[in-house]
Write a structure and sequence with these properties.
It catalyses: dCMP + ATP = dCDP + ADP; CMP + ATP = CDP + ADP. This protein has 9 helices and 8 strands. With about 230 residues, it is an alpha/beta fold. Bound molecules: adenosine-5'-diphosphate and deoxycytidine diphosphate.
Length: about 230
């Protein structure tokens, strides 16, 4: 088949916080003309709704009871990814410290995961040219038949330095601790934890520039498409 008429390609990119999933996925999707989905933004959006509606984050039963209520819509253009909850643009508020500190507890609730996973699968199957989906459990649970699975890693020091730079925070040590705590919670939850799929390609980005990581993933997609 000619490249121009290629079959939709599904790319799953997983890994802990600060490994470069969002920046890499967005750039790869833009370069290859694919859609892009930030699944972390969806979990942040449902967490934002729980916080805004006064739901007790320490009560998984209370979270489960209302998990079906908010309508979460993700725009999948990599040049302009969007996220709304019941029609409200929440791209800014979902990055708040409060949401960041509560998102692991909310996303550990099975009813929340079932709801969000369904949204993710539906977006992936409707992407005409294909999609790059980034998260924690995409290769293992959400899209186990993805054409390419990549698992990004980096040292905690590199990840904390990147996040601190982004948050314009000088306290790299506090950022490092918060990041390690969130990764531990995400990796140890019962339902669909952060994990590398057996057939994922692991890329350690500690010593790589973002441009190098993007090039690496684009090459992996092209090799898959060429049937190598
Ligand atoms: N290989 C890299 N080298 C240096 N900085 C990077 C690299 N990859 C990503 N970054 C930067 O690190 C920060 C976190 O990256 P991001 O893509 O949001 O990670 P994740 O989605 O895995 O949490 C961003 O500011 C991004 O520009
Ligand atoms: N597929 C996913 C994606 C994110 N999550 C949860 C766990 C993560 O700590 C939060 C936030 O994810 P996000 O990718 O926005 O996190 P960072 O960009 O690393 O700060 O969502 C998840 O449980 N499953």
């Amino acid at each position: 088949m000619e490249n121009g008429a290629a079959q939709p390609v599904i790319v799953a990119i997983d890994g802990p916080s600060g490994t470069g999933k969002s920046s890499t996925s967005k750039a790869v999707a833009a370069q290859l003309g694919l859609s892009y989905l930030d699944t972390g933004a969806q979990y942040r959006a449902i967490t934002w709704w729980m916080v805004t509606n006064g739901i007790d984050i320490d009560d998984p039963t209370a979270i489960a009871a209302v998990a079906g209520k908010p309508e979460i819509v993700s725009g999948t253009d990599p040049e302009n990814p969007t996220i709304t909850v019941d029609g409200t643009d929440v791209a800014g508020p979902i990055r708040s410290q409060e949401v960041t500190s509560k998102v692991s507890a909310v996303s550990a609730v099975p009813e929340v995961r079932a709801r969000i996973t369904e949204l993710q699968r539906s977006l992936a199957t409707s992407a005409e040219k294909g999609i790059v989906v980034e998260g924690r459990d995409i290769g293992t649970t959400v899209l186990p038949d993805a054409d390419l699975k990549v698992f990004l890693t980096a040292s905690p020091e590199a990840r904390a330095a990147r996040r601190s730079g982004e948050l314009k925070s000088t306290d790299v040590q506090a950022t490092r601790e918060a990041l390690i705590k969130r990764d531990a919670a995400d990796s140890s939850r019962k339902t669909s934890p952060l994990a590398k799929a057996d057939d994922a390609v692991e890329v350690d980005t500690t010593e790589l520039t973002l441009a190098q990581v993007i090039e690496c993933v684009v090459t992996l997609v092209e090799e898959k498409r060429a049937g190598k």
